[in-house]
UniProtKB/TrEMBL annotation:
SUPFAM superfamilies: Diaminopimelate epimerase-like. This is PrpF domain-containing protein. The keyword S-adenosyl-L-methionine does not apply. InterPro entries: PrpF-like. Gene3D superfamilies: Diaminopimelate Epimerase, Chain A, domain 1 (3.10.310.10). Belongs to the PrpF family. Keywords: Isomerase. The lineage of its organism: Bacteria, Bacillati, Actinomycetota, Actinomycetes, Micrococcales.
C-alpha cells in the first residue's frame, strides 16, 4: 500500500491534513469516505487516524491551481466530524488558510521569491479571496521566526493575511439587532456566518473556560435553540445537525484591555481561541452602530485595531474602510509524507 501524499500542518490555532486536489478522488462522496478513514472518524478518540479528537484538529484543506484570474490557488476546506460520519463544506477556515499558502509554495504551485512571497487564495467554500504573505528567504519557505500568537506555544514565522470583504450582505436580515429565540442577537457575516449574543443575556459572565460552558446543559440547549432560529433568517442551507454555520459567539466586556471578550460555539464545542473569520465577523459587529456589542466595547481606536479576546489570549485585527480585514497568523509544517487510510468498512452479510 503506497499511501496518499499528505502534509499535516498547523495553521493559526488549528491543525489539519493538507492535500493536492489531484491526490484525492474527484467524486465528492468517494473523497469524503476516504477523508473519514484518513482522519479516523467516527470515533471520539480518532485513534485510527490523523485527527486529534477535537473539531480544531480534525480539519482538511484541499489545494489546487486556480482558474480564477484573481487568485493563484483554490482552497477547499472540509470539516471532518469527530464522532459522526460527516464531512462538511458549509464553512471555510481562516486558521487553516494560514497553512495553505506555504503548502502551495512547498508543492510548487506558486513560485517562491527571495524574501517574501504573496499567495492569492480563493476560498472555494465562500468565493472570498485572501492575499497571504509568506516569508521565503533564499526562495524557500521558512517556519522559523519570532512571531507569537495566542493559543499556540512558542514562536514561528509570521504569515500576514489580508481578506477581501465578502460579496454578500454583512447583515443577512438588514438589521443590526434581531430578536430570536427570546434574545437580542446580531446576525452577521464578514467571512463567517455568526450570531452575536450578549453572554449576560444567557446568564453567564463570559469569562468561563470552554469546558465549563460545554458542561452547562441549559446553556448548550439555549445556544442550539438560538442557532436553529437563525438558520432561516440567515438563508443557510442544510440543517443544524449537518451544517457547521452559523457560529454562536457570546460577547462580554473585555477583561484584558481588548475591544471585546468572546466565547465561540463552533457549533457544538467551544473554541479554545477563536476562528480567524469568526473574529472578523465579531470585529465587524463591534464596529457596527446598534449591534449587541454596543455598550460592551470601548470606543473604536484611531488606528482601527480591534483586539478580540478569547479563552487563551487575543487576536488583533485591522478593518479598513473598504471592509478588508488584515491580521497576523503563523503556520508550521508538522509532517510531510504519505498517509495510509484505514480499510473501507466491510458490509455485514
Amino acid at each position: 500500500m503506497s499511501g496518499i501524499p499528505c502534509a499535516l500542518m498547523r495553521g493559526g490555532t488549528s491543525k489539519g491534513a493538507l492535500f493536492l486536489a489531484d491526490d484525492l478522488p474527484a467524486d465528492a462522496a468517494a473523497r469524503d469516505d476516504l477523508l473519514l478513514r484518513i482522519m479516523g472518524s467516527p470515533d471520539l478518540r480518532q485513534i485510527d487516524g490523523l485527527g486529534g479528537a477535537h473539531p480544531l484538529t480534525s480539519k482538511v484543506g484541499v489545494v489546487s491551481r486556480s482558474e480564477d484570474d484573481a487568485a493563484d490557488i483554490d482552497y477547499l476546506f472540509l470539516q471532518v466530524a469527530v464522532d459522526k460520519p460527516v464531512v462538511s463544506t458549509s464553512q471555510t477556515c481562516g486558521n487553516i488558510l494560514a497553512a495553505v499558502a506555504p503548502f502551495a509554495i512547498e508543492r510548487s504551485l506558486v513560485p517562491a521569491r527571495d524574501g517574501s512571497t504573496v499567495v492569492r487564495v480563493r476560498m472555494v467554500n465562500t468565493g472570498t479571496v485572501a492575499a497571504l504573505t509568506v516569508h521565503t528567504p533564499g526562495g524557500e519557505v521558512t517556519y522559523e521566526g519570532d512571531a507569537e500568537i495566542s493559543g499556540v506555544p512558542g514562536t514561528a514565522s509570521p504569515v500576514e493575511v489580508a481578506v477581501e470583504p465578502p460579496s454578500g450582505a454583512l447583515l443577512p436580515t438588514g438589521n443590526p439587532v434581531d430578536r430570536i429565540a427570546g434574545v437580542d442577537a446580531t446576525l452577521i457575516d464578514n467571512g463567517m456566518a455568526s450570531v452575536l449574543v450578549r453572554a449576560a443575556d444567557l446568564g453567564i459572565t463570559g469569562d468561563e473556560d470552554p469546558a465549563k460552558l460545554e458542561s452547562n446543559a441549559d446553556l448548550v440547549a439555549r445556544v442550539a435553540e438560538i442557532r436553529a432560529a437563525a438558520f432561516p433568517l440567515m438563508g443557510i442551507a442544510g440543517t443544524p445537525e449537518t451544517t457547521t454555520t452559523p457560529k454562536i459567539v457570546l460577547l462580554s466586556e473585555p477583561g484584558e484591555g481588548g475591544a471585546i471578550r468572546t466565547r465561540s460555539f463552533i457549533p457544538f464545542r467551544v473554541h479554545e481561541a477563536i476562528g480567524v473569520l469568526g473574529a472578523a465577523s465579531v470585529a465587524a459587529g463591534v464596529s457596527l452602530q446598534g449591534s449587541v456589542a454596543e455598550g460592551l466595547a470601548p470606543a473604536p481606536r484611531a488606528d482601527r485595531r480591534i483586539r478580540v479576546e478569547h479563552p487563551t489570549g487575543f487576536l488583533d485585527l485591522m478593518v479598513d474602510p473598504t471592509g478588508e480585514t488584515r491580521l497576523l497568523r503563523t503556520a508550521r509544517m508538522i509532517m510531510d509524507g504519505r498517509v495510509h487510510p484505514r480499510s473501507p468498512r466491510k458490509e455485514s452479510t
